[in-house]
Structure formats: structure tokens, C-alpha cells
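From the shared-data thread, chain only:
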Amino acid sequence: MMFTNIDEAIDWICTKKEKKFPFEDFKEICHNNGDKQDGFYTIHVAGTNGKGSFVSYLCDLLMSHGYKVGTFTSPHYVTHLDRIRVNKNNIPADKFLEIFNSYSDLFAEKKLTMMQMDFMIMCDYFHEEEVDFAIIETGIGGRFDATNVLKDTALSVITTIGYDHMELLGDTLEEICFEKCGIIKDDSKVLIGKLEESCVEVVKTQCELHNSELFILDDFIRTGDRSFIYHDKEYELSTYADYQLHNASLAIQALEIIAHDYPFVIDYEQARKAVYYSIWHCRFEMVKENPRVILDGAHNIHGVEALVKSFDQFSGSKCIVFSALKRKEYKKMINVLKNHCDELYITCFENKEVIDLKEFGDFITFSDYRQAIEEAINNYDNILICGSLYFMSDVVLNCKFN
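Structure, as C-alpha cells:
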């Protein structure tokens, strides 16, 4: 099986998104393929929220010190190709197609999942590009995630623990945390963000079992709306997102751990610039100023609760445009969002799992999200467009905010 067109190849891959292929069997395939997932200084990242932001901050921090950095994230922002990046540049379409075709018969024969195929393509590309660091984000959970075939992880990071994907990960924070801890490797280092104490105990137990050294995020000192001190150095964010103070601090501490091990000397002036200019799209991203329009991919209750704290800081009338997938706790999210705006619009987008608007008779609903956004822009000072990351991708592709 061969493809000559990148769109056709990606369409084929995406049809395998919901497929399942046993984790241990995938590990064997990777081993028989030369264990190409190893051989990098790898930072493996799990967590309920904040993974993408953390990856972005750490990538910029390492790049500011002259290193070549590969990142693997999901879901995609605009194109499937942005899941695999080197120095924040997407894998070229011709290179993706070339590597895909080299494995296409194997992919088809073994019936691998989309995530597994992307992961194998990523491994080849990072080796070709000879990246200095590979920052790899889990898809769901950690223990049985496709990315957890990694064996030589230098640093495992758990950003946050909240209620999401409970049908796969468990009903309690402790059960979810245990699944995320599956990325912890023997004799490695582990960094965690601000977790519930019960979850910290879960991580400590797993670190002891794996003889791994645990680092816990220290407190930052807020010095202004967007400025803070971390480990005696002052930084400033360009975003108004309050929750990014946590993610940026976590990335700074990761940089300090990596610099000690690699080793290299941190240039804190370059680090300050990297933190300020770092952007992770659709995380409290302001795409229009008058009226103010913000995009945020908060897609679980933990993320929404953090999001509204930042939205509350703005004065003037407020409207929120929301859509999500049925498998998420969308009713809980709506109950939070409705208390932080003058009007809540509920809408849908092109996805077979999207919420059914018939459920929301007490709210203003729009079958066309573009109409909902236009109505909000014409009538309110502050518009927050939030929910599913797949919704964000559609909005970015199909809406102009100039």
C-alpha cells in the first residue's frame, strides 16, 4: 500500500483513530523495528491539563539555549502535521508521506492505531533531524498509552491530575494518578505540578518502586498580573491566562533539572525572553482585541474552573460560546460557565461525537458555530470561545477575526 497524496494518507490514518491495538504487541513491533523511540534525551509528559502548554514553554526554553527540540503532541491544532514538530516547525508533508509509505504495509497488516502510526513516524523523523531533546506528550493516561513504549526516559513530568477519560482511567483522582504514573521509569527523574496530597502520595510510592528521584513544583511568587518570581528569578507572561503561571513555572523547573543533568548553564535572560514570547495556541489565546475574543481548549471541569478565573478579570459585557463532545462532562462545564458571563451560547461542530443541541432548551443554541460567534462579536465586549480542542481547530480554520 502506497500513497502519493498527503491528504489521502492522513485521511487513511485518521480512520484508525478509534481502533485498538494491544500495548504489549506495539512494544514488540517497536523493538523489532530497532527501538527507534529511544536514543534521545526524552522528556515524557502526562497529566489531565497543561501538557501542551508545558511542552511549548519547555521547548522554547531549550531552543533559547541553542538546542534542537522535537515535540510530539495531540490533538492537532490546524493540521495533522503539527503533532510532529522540530523547533516548532511541522514535519514537512513530503517527509511525513515518505516515512509513512516506508511503513504502510506494516501499518495495514498489523492494523495499528492512528496514535501508534504517528508515534513511529515521529521516531524516524526525530532521528533524521538529530534532535537534542525529544518532548513527548501522552495521548490518554500513561501506563498503556502508545508513547509509553519509551524505555530511556530521562525526565517524566505529570502536570496536573483531574477528572477526565474516567471510562479508561478510573473513577477517583488516585486511580487516574496511578495510570499517569505509568510513565515513570527505573532510575529516572520525576517532576510533578501542584497535585492533591493523596495524588502526591501515589507518585511517591511509584517513585520508590522505580528508584526514581521526585521533584515537586515549588511555589511561585506573583509580582503582578502577568509577572512572577520562581526560584529567585523574575519572569513575565504575555498571556492573561492565570493558569499559565503554573505551567511556565513547571517548565522552568524542568529546565533546571535538565541543565543539571545534560549539563549546560542556564542563561536566565534568554529564559525570561523564551517564557514571555512562548505561545501555545488555543490556551487563552486572544485573537481579536475590540471586542476581545479569546480561544481556549478547556475540555474538562478542571480546565474550565481554571479558565473562568482568567476570564473574570475582564470588565465589560461577556459572552461565552461553548461546544464539546458527548463523552466529556459537558453539563458540569456548562454549570460553571453560565455563572461567569452575561450570556452562554451553546453550539456544535462537525464531529460525530458532538453534543446534541436538543438537550439545551434553557440556553440559546446555534447549529452553526460561525453564526454564534458572529452574534457574540456584534453584541458583547468580551467573547470566550471554548470547549473541545476539535472545536477550536474548526474555529481557527473557518473563522476570521481581523
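The mean pLDDT is 96.
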